[in-house]
Write a sequence for this structure.
């Protein structure tokens, strides 16, 4: 791939391309970051790569392997969104491969905060004689790596709150009275619901409270999208949820957070975590997800669970659908204050994305 003009032949242009291709790894690379790499020789892109699904090759390896004439590497520049690793994990260090192939110049978006890297990749490359430049499009690279960076700097997952509310501000009808028949309802349209399934495929976990499970019996899977289903995290203080509910079907990894320690009937494939429901529940849940290496989570309700994370200021992003229907009365939507980043019309629904800046 060659660039069309000298005006485009800048570090920024190549780093933007790295970010663009790295998104191919969204939802599959965790706990590894979704890195993008581009190799440039005399103003022409000769190799590209992004991080493979977890356990596979990193972006730098895939970019180098894509170069048809490896002799050009000794006079090329490699661009990466994140500092190359310098340690052995599932794969050998990328920094070692760059040195081995004789690539003389490296341009990095930002340093890796992981304690096993943390500048060591850069030091290794500089020691080998490589010319290294750091901080190109750093803000954009930070935004791109927000899940990975939040996990390793704040010791918790990147937290996305999601809910749908009616035009008059309710997320659900009033609870049923004894003897009343439950009637299905939808606040959003089918396009919005499909988008939610796409979002689920992009995050490592999905969290709901007991009342949401008992009221809606959600599957929390990807019925309307393809990809890897997230780990289900379910609050169930006294283990009210019975085996006939979807969250206990064993079809995807599920963590039940409870205070019951003397369980007599554990379910195969379900992990139980003990937390104190009388203390700071949102922080305890963050701790559980950090221990389980869940780098990002989408919290889908209900209102009490969502509000508890808002009140604890443990959230990064909120995605709020407003439908065209009205309930007149019911369960009120959470109250949130943040920076409105984007508003999108999806047929009859309006999606507002808020950031906790």
């Amino acid at each position: 791939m060659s660039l069309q003009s000298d005006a485009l032949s800048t570090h920024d242009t190549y780093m933007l391309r790295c970010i663009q291709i790295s998104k191919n790894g969204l939802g599959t690379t965790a706990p590894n970051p979704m890195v993008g790499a581009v190799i440039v020789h005399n103003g022409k892109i000769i190799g590209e790569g992004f991080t493979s699904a977890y356990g596979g090759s990193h972006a730098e390896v895939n970019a180098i392997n894509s170069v048809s004439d490896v002799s050009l590497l000794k006079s090329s520049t490699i661009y990466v969104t994140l500092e190359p690793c310098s340690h052995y994990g599932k794969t050998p260090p990328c920094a070692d491969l760059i040195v081995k192939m004789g690539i003389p110049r490296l341009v990095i978006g930002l340093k890796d905060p992981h304690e096993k890297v943390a500048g060591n990749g850069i030091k290794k490359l500089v020691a080998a004689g490589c010319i290294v430049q750091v901080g190109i499009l750093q803000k954009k690279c930070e935004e791109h790596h927000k899940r990975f960076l939040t996990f390793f700097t704040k010791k918790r997952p990147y937290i996305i709150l999601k809910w749908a509310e009616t035009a008059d501000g309710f997320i659900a009808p009033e609870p049923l009275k004894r003897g009343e028949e439950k009637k299905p309802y939808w606040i959003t349209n089918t396009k919005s619901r499909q988008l939610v399934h796409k979002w689920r495929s992009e995050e490592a976990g999905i969290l709901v409270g007991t009342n949401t499970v008992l009221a809606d019996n959600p599957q929390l899977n990807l019925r309307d999208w393809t990809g890897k289903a997230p780990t289900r995290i379910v609050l169930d203080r006294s283990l009210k949820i019975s085996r006939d509910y979807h969250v206990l079907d064993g079809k995807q990894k599920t963590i039940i957070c409870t205070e019951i320690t003397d369980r007599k009937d554990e379910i195969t494939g379900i992990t139980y975590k003990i937390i104190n429901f009388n203390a700071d529940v949102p922080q305890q849940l963050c701790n559980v997800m950090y221990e389980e290496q869940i780098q990002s989570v989408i919290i889908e309700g209900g209102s009490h669970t969502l509000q508890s994370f808002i009140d604890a200021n443990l959230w990064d992003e909120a995605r709020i659908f407003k439908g065209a229907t009205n309930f007149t009365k019911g369960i009120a939507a959470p109250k949130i204050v943040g920076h409105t980043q984007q508003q999108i019309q999806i047929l009859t629904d309006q999606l507002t994305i808020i950031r906790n800046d």
In short: The domain at 10-149 is CATH 3.40.140.10 (Cytidine Deaminase; domain 2). The CA atoms of residues 6 and 43 lie 9 Å apart.
